[in-house]
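User: I'm preparing a small set of examples for a lab meeting where we compare how different chains pack in three dimensions. I only have the primary sequence for this one, and I'd like the structure in token form so I can line it up with the others. Please keep the answer compact; I'll paste it straight into my notes.
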Amino acid sequence: MSATKIIFVETRTEEKRALLCRWAERFYEKGNKVQILTDSTMAARHLDELLWTFSQGSFVPHRIISPPPPKDITEPVVITTADLQLEKYDVLMADGPVDLASMKRYRMVVHFVPLDDREKRQESRLLWQSAKQKGFQLQHVPYPTNTKPV
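Assistant: Understood. Below is the structure token output for the 150-residue chain.
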């Protein structure tokens, strides 16, 4: 398996989840299986609702998965509150903290850099440096971006 690619996407805190939904939709449209990792049940429920409502003509089949993961997952997009290793899910979208060891299991990871949160922005810088040292492929998407997600 080639090195995991981490895409660092700059955003504002209030825009992050809507942007996450657009990226998830784009990956879904390209045929990728996407796991969205959140840090709480409330965040998972919020994203569940947003994936239904963020865009008028959009439909992203998804569901919330709790440990232990069921064997019959058919949805192309799943939301988890735990770092679950799911077979055939090749894209991870980080709505919460994820360590590099977990990121290695995916072909691609989307990490959001909140420009208006100094502490989280610094954590993102440290993640970039550590990922670079460990040989991850890195991409920076500045804010605002006029291009569609990859």
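A couple of notes for your slides: The longest strand covers residues 5-11. The chain is about 30% helix and 25% strand.

User: Perfect, thanks.
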